[in-house]
């Protein structure tokens, strides 16, 4: 029994090292010269080439521009997908209309379709609309997320109808009920959904690679892929781009941490 405490501490320290160690090496390698990235033993202290690598990224991929592109795409997708998911989830959960269950089953069936299968239909659609190589071509396909609609529908089903009916009796319209009651009560679930959607929009690679043609339109993942040349690759710059890409996601998680954890616990306990 006495050895359980130190053993548990050791196991937790090992797990912490396995989780944090790669990120620490990534951050330190991003400050090194290219020839020192894969040196052994690995350099685990900051190097003196951070500004040089930043300047190299700015010259090679236009770091500022691609960062703004990624923020725009992921931000608009997150806001749009959350709005659509809340509205559609509210309709599926609280309104009884003809074909509701059929539409919901069809929506769920799209979850089993691989994303790669949809690339050609979406590409043809965007081509017909003349949206290839625009922000709209990357943003629009991510505005409707079947998982988000399903998540919100399941969360809103647990809300008592009497609470909503009381607001309607007091003269509140559906949008007011949604804004004043539904959204505040389900804020943790919405925050968790926003984090998942932002992570997907920020990291998406295949579709932006297909839809975007101009380097000034590239998002950060696509621009980072262009750093890998056929003969020479500056891995310090590649790792720096990866470290920069991780910062917004980590910052958003820290901001929404309490809501995110509450949302996960709420989803785990609701029937």
Automatic annotation (TrEMBL):
Membrane-crossing residue ranges in chain numbering: 66-90, 102-123, 135-152, 189-210, 235-256
Keywords of the record: Cell membrane, Membrane, Transmembrane, Transmembrane helix, Transport
Cited InterPro entries: MetI-like, MetI-like_sf
Main subcellular localisation: membrane
Intracellular or extracellular location(s): Cell membrane
Pfam families: BPD_transp_1
Membrane topology: Multi-pass membrane protein
Domain ABC transmembrane type-1: 67-256
PANTHER family in the cross-refs: ABC TRANSPORTER PERMEASE PROTEIN MG189-RELATED, ABC TRANSPORTER PERMEASE PROTEIN MG189-RELATED-RELATED
Family affiliation: Belongs to the binding-protein-dependent transport system permease family.
Protein name: Carbohydrate ABC transporter permease
Taxonomic source organism: Streptomyces wedmorensis
């Amino acid at each position: 029994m006495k050895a359980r405490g130190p053993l548990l501490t050791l196991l937790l320290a090992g797990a912490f090292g396995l989780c944090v160690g790669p990120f620490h090496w990534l951050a330190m390698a991003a400050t090194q010269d290219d020839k020192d990235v894969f040196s052994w033993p690995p350099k685990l202290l900051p190097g003196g080439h951070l500004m040089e690598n930043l300047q190299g990224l700015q010259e090679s991929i236009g770091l500022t521009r691609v960062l703004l592109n990624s923020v725009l795409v992921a931000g608009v997708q997150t806001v749009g997908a959350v709005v659509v998911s809340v509205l559609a989830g509210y309709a599926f959960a609280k309104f009884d209309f003809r074909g509701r269950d059929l539409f919901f089953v069809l929506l769920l069936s799209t979850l089993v379709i691989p994303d790669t299968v949809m690339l050609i239909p979406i590409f043809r659609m965007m081509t017909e609309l003349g949206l290839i190589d625009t922000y709209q071509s990357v943003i629009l396909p991510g505005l409707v997320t079947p998982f988000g609609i399903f998540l919100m529908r399941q969360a809103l089903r647990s809300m008592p109808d009497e609470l909503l009916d009381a607001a309607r009796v007091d003269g509140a319209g559906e949008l007011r009920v949604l804004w004043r009651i539904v959204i505040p009560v389900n804020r943790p679930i919405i925050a968790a959904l926003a984090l998942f959607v932002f992570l997907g929009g920020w990291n998406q690679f295949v579709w932006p690679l297909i839809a975007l043609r101009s380097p000034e339109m590239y998002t950060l993942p696509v621009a980072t892929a262009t750093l890998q040349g056929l003969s020479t690759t500056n891995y310090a710059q590649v790792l720096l781009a990866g470290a920069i890409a991780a910062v917004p996601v980590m910052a958003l998680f820290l901001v929404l941490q309490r809501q995110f954890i509450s949302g996960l616990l709420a989803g785990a306990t609701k029937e």
